[in-house]
Design a protein that fits this description.
The chain has about 130 residues and is α+β, with helices and mostly antiparallel strands. A three-stranded antiparallel sheet has the order 1-4-5, with no helix packed on it. A two-stranded antiparallel sheet has the order 2-3. It has two domains: about 60 residues, no CATH class; about 60 residues, no CATH class. It is built from three helices and five strands, in the order ββαααβββ.
Length: about 130
């Protein structure tokens, strides 16, 4: 039986976020702001049976290590030791929720374009 989990960490639809429209050279842009902090400890305690939270913190550390070390993305299959993971410390034990992602791409006629993805609008579905 499928279980539905509520996520109190979602950013309110009315929250204002502005992406830098001049940056087209990068593949994607997620707004960097600290308006919506989420305590990792509290996040993990809420709905602990949620499968998305299984091994969340070590997976987060692995992902961050891969990015920091400049390794190619491999689906986060890179294996790190606990000693490696312990080199990652998150400021105040928080992560931050954002509501907008922009993906830049080249169109069929070789022009730059982008798509904004916001889960609280009509443009919330993504097909990969």
């Amino acid at each position: 039986k499928a279980t539905r989990y509520s996520h109190a960490h979602q950013v309110a639809f009315s929250a204002s976020e502005r992406l830098d429209e001049r940056i087209l050279q990068v593949h994607h842009q997620i707004l960097v702001n600290r308006n919506h902090p989420i305590s990792i400890a509290k996040f993990l305690q809420e709905s602990p049976q949620d499968p998305a939270k299984r091994n969340f913190y070590p997976k987060l550390q692995d992902h961050l290590l891969t990015c920091i070390l400049g390794k190619e993305f491999d689906g986060d299959e890179e294996e790190y030791t606990d000693e490696d993971r312990n080199t990652i410390r998150l400021s105040n034990g928080k992560i931050f929720a954002v509501r907008t992602l922009r993906i830049n791409y080249t169109t069929y006629n070789v022009r730059w374009d982008y798509e904004l993805i916001n889960p609280r609008t009509d443009h919330c579905m993504v097909m990969v």
